[in-house]
Amino acid sequence: MKIAIAGAGAMGSRFGLMLHQGRNEVLLIDGWADHVQQIKEHGLKANFNGEEVVEQLPIVLQSEVEKEDQVDLIILFTKAMQLEKMLQDIQSLIKKDTEVLCLLNGIGHEDIIEKFVPMENIYIGNTMWTAGLEGPGQVKLFGNGSIELQNLGAGKEVAAKKLADKLSESGLNAHFSDNIHYSIYRKACVNGTMNGLCTILDVNMAELGRTSTAHKMVETIVNEFAKVAAVENIELDIPEVIAHCESCFDPETIGLHYPSMYQDLIKNHRLTEIDYINGAISRKGKKYDIATPYCDFLTELVHAKEDSLNVK
Ligand code: NAD
User: Fold this and answer.
1) By the 8 A CB rule, do 248 and 205 touch?
2) Where are the transmembrane segments (predicted)?
3) Which position among 45, 187, 227, 284 bears the catalytic label?
4) Is the Cβ atom of 186 under 6 angstroms away from ligand 1?
5) Tell me, what's the pLDDT at 189?
6) What is the Cα–Cα distance from 127 to 150, expressed in whole angstroms?
7) How does pLDDT run across 21-75, given as a tens digit for each residue?
8) Ligand 1 contact via 137 beta carbon (within 6 Å)
9) Does the beta carbon of 31 sit less than 6 angstroms from any atom of ligand 1?
10) What DSSP element (H or E) covers 227?
11) Spatial contact of 5 and 27, defined as CB atoms under 8 Å apart
12) Cβ count within 10 A of residue 21
């Protein structure tokens, strides 16, 4: 299968590498010139579960995608705020039958993708795989993960199951879901509680969990997500989702980690995905006439932090 990875940062590199090792023809597409140059010159370097690996993978700048390029599947792996520009740049690659799979964190990406891709070719999902970008051309990949995905197009369940099987052939452990929006909201609740709060408070997740107000904040934010989701006919199991979010506090598992938004903003001075997590709930709340004060405030705080660090 010929597969393009549109957005070849940490996660795109992981997927590109695993799909390449699974004997697919992989094309990486990215907008970061230094990263593209390094991979062109030295290959993609990965610390893959402790082993140093170098793979020569073709990579192009997204501005240099050619009309003649042809792929069966495009996997989108930009950050949320880079998605629309990526789709604009690779428009010529999106043909009548090209399948497009979006595995970004956050809510509502299909609204953007639909502007560029016919609904019957869109698949959305989420993933428990992780990855870290160490520098241009270099990633760190460890642990295991999984993927859940579903078709947006009516009657495309068989194609979605085939796609999951195809990804699993490369060890990506993908499964068809018949309720992907539930999973996306459930994961967004984890990001919507851990990411913004740890970033603003400058703490890891275990430290957040030890604060006297953590439970109230998590509970309130999850309830805001749940009210918005309910309008979209997604009935979150609120106590289960709160417990799922708060399981991140455990120092024996992932509690000592700083979430990705913290790494992006505080460590690397990069813009955050807040507008597609808590910000998405704020926007939808306004549209549906539902008050979402914690999400509104957290979104504003994170933007204020971006401004105060002069991140653009
Ligand atoms: P990433 O930041 O590693 O890469 C995204 C894009 O940003 C790539 O095009 C990359 O080249 C570019 N980029 C990265 N660093 C840059 C720099 N210093 N200067 C210029 N450009 C730079 O993002 P990711 O971690 O691969 O995440 C992609 C999506 O997957 C996001 O929606 C994220 O929330 C989600 N996700 C990530 C993980 C994870 O463990 N990283 C896990 C699950 C989901």
Assistant:
1) yes
2) none
3) 187
4) no
5) 98
6) 12
7) 999 999 999 999 999 999 999 999 999 999 999 999 999 999 999 888 899 999 9
8) no
9) yes
10) helix 214-231
11) yes
12) 14
